[in-house]
């Protein structure tokens, strides 16, 4: 917080920081005390900003990566569900042909259908056929649930380390404050 209070321009910050890179430590010590401290503060500030920028870039990259993985997982699950519907329709078609076949006695229809789908799985089959699970968002959340430990291990430390400047976004500031408090609690 000291550098922003000095109101030094970005160019001057860079200049004083570059002095530390140009001169060695012994030469900087020969500067007057205020100038040497200013150079060191500027160097530390520049490195802090650079490190913070790298953390933000990595955080965004990892977040986007997890979002892409979740989207791909959801698309794959929907495709598998659609292919399953096609197979289920063929099975249902076999059973309808049995029901429609007039040469089969009415009392034999159920046993023949239960030979195709067992009685204990029949309700599940009928429900799946009536309402297939094609909810992409649901599958994305399933991915996040399955990968929860990995996501927390990779993103939580970065999120807790980053300093967000959100003076003009009070609701987002409160949300980030809540998340940081939540993530710092021991049982989460």
First-to-last CA distance:
31 Å
Radius of gyration: 32 Å
Taken from the alpha-carbon principal axes, the silhouette is: rod-shaped
Q: Return the structural class.
A: mainly alpha
Helix content: over 70%
Q: What is the overall pLDDT average?
A: 83
Order of helices and strands: HHHHHHHHH
Task: Describe the protein's architecture and organization.
The structure is a single chain. This protein is an all-alpha fold and 188 residues long. The protein is built from 9 helices and no strands. Helix 4 (33-100) runs antiparallel to helix 5, helix 4 packs across helix 7 and helix 4 (33-100) runs antiparallel to helix 8. The longest helix has 68 residues, at 33-100. The model has no long low-confidence stretch (mean pLDDT 83).
Mind sketching the topology for me?
Layout: H1 2-6, H2 10-22, H3 25-29, H4 33-100, H5 106-116, H6 119-130, H7 136-146, H8 148-161, H9 170-184
Helix pairs in contact: 2-4, 4-5, 4-7, 4-8
Supply database-style keywords:
188 residues; mainly alpha; 0% strand; rod-shaped
In short:
It is built from nine helices and no strands.
């Amino acid at each position: 917080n000291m550098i922003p209070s000095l109101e030094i321009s970005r160019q001057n910050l860079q200049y004083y920081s570059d002095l530390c890179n140009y001169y060695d430590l012994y030469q900087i010590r020969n500067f007057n005390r205020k100038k040497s401290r200013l150079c060191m503060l500027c160097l530390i500030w520049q490195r802090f900003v650079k490190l913070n920028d790298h953390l933000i870039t990595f955080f965004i990259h990892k977040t986007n990566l997890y979002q892409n993985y979740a989207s791909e997982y959801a698309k794959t699950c929907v495709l598998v569900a659609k292919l399953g519907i096609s197979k289920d329709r063929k099975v249902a078609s076999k059973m309808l042909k049995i029901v429609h076949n007039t040469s089969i006695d009415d009392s034999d229809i159920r046993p023949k259908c239960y030979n195709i789908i067992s009685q204990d799985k029949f309700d599940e089959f009928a429900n799946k056929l009536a309402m297939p699970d094609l909810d992409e968002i649901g599958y994305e959340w399933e991915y996040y649930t399955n990968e929860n430990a990995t996501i927390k291990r990779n993103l939580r430390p970065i999120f807790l380390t980053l300093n967000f400047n959100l003076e003009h976004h009070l609701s987002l500031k409160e949300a980030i404050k809540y998340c940081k408090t939540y993530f710092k609690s021991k049982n989460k």
